Fold this sequence. Notes:
Blueprint: H1 2-18, H2 21-26, E1 42-57, E2 62-74, E3 85-88, E4 101-104, E5 106-111, E6 119-124, E7 128-140, E8 152-161, E9 169-173, E10 180-181, E11 191-205, E12 208-221, H3 224-241, H4 252-274, H5 286-331, H6 338-363, H7 374-393, H8 399-426
Parallel strand pairs: 1-9, 1-10
Antiparallel strand pairs: 1-2, 2-7, 3-6, 4-8, 5-7, 6-7, 8-12, 11-12
Helix pairs in contact: 3-4, 3-5, 4-5, 5-8
Amino acid sequence: xxxxLGLASDLRRSDTSSxxxxxxxxxxxxxxxxxxxxxxxxxxxxxxDIASISSISExxxxxxxxxxxxxxxxxxxxxxxxxxxxTLDARLVxxxxxxxxxxxxxxxxxLHDVTVGNRLIRLFSNGTILYALRITTTVACNMDLSKxxxxxxxxxxQLESWGYDENDVIFTWLRGNNSVQGIEKxxxxxxxxxxxxxxxxxxxQETGSYPRLILQFELRRNxxxxxxxxxxxxTLLVMLSWVSFWIxxxxxxxxxxxxxxxxxxxxxxxxxxxxxxxxxxxFIKAIDVYLGIxxxxxxxxxVEYAVAHYSSSQKCAAKGPQEGPANEISKEMEGxxxxxILNSSITSYQRKISFTSIEISSDNVNCSDLTMKTHEKIxxxxxxxxxxxxxYFTIQNPSNVDHYSKLLFPLFFMLVNVFYWAYxxxx
Length: 427
């Protein structure tokens, strides 16, 4: 027993001589009190390494990142002689005072623990402590999706003290903007990191004013993927709907099939573009505006054929009663005697007189006639205005509808595209 006690005392002396700070840890050190307790605040310098940003969710409006958080502060109770630094076992963190730093707006966070807890403690001779952690966190990021997918999002990573206010703790960046490393090397699937910068701020709460460090970075979305997936197919569907302008009005099945097919395809494309976003998202996005424009042009091409075909059928129906009897008379002219000719002439003359009287009575009625009653005058004026409006919108030559549509639809679509891309890219 005496030999074992002597050996233990020798090992304790060797540990104490190699690292005198251990003696402070075991003798008179209180981990529940911060350094400089009751005096000046502790200055904690921080630095970050962004290992990865694994996902950015528009539906949940957050991003998930893995970071290396490094904190440095000086504890005069751990000063020892020499100019060396020692890396301690991470489990010794339980014996030391550490800052109560937390990530603001964090939804989920965890500390990696394979194969052991990913923490590092390094002690310097002047009492400086380096405390490093590897953390994966999901942080909220308020996004403005009104220009989606040509948008630029600004996200933040904020570090704040939970319990110690500015009278106890002061947060600073270790090297200013250079305190953040790795973010410029990130390769994201849909985004490109445009810029980033660091800020020092304070959070005013009911319990006091707390120090806060902010890392703010801007992410620009890569629009090429959406051009190939959505913009090009929708534009081709609009151009496909214009094919019906080169088909005659009599080809009802062909033109109807093209119109209905393009409308249904466009509807499917619009539903697919919104499936990746949250159903509760109320933003009117840039891609929704473009798909709405394309859908309007496709639906307009279908309506154009309906108007042209209706006008053509009305014109044919108006010509039918006039041309039918004339053809019959020309065919039966040889077998008709003079009496029938005279009788038919008298009958047609009487009809003309009756039609003329009807037209005069309907179109040339003087609505200001003193013998007419007030409600009859009002009906007369309204009837005249309705006749004028109907005659103004009546298409005299239905074949000109397709002729003008071949030029106006592509020209107007190009003009709308110029305004659309100019607004969402430069404003």
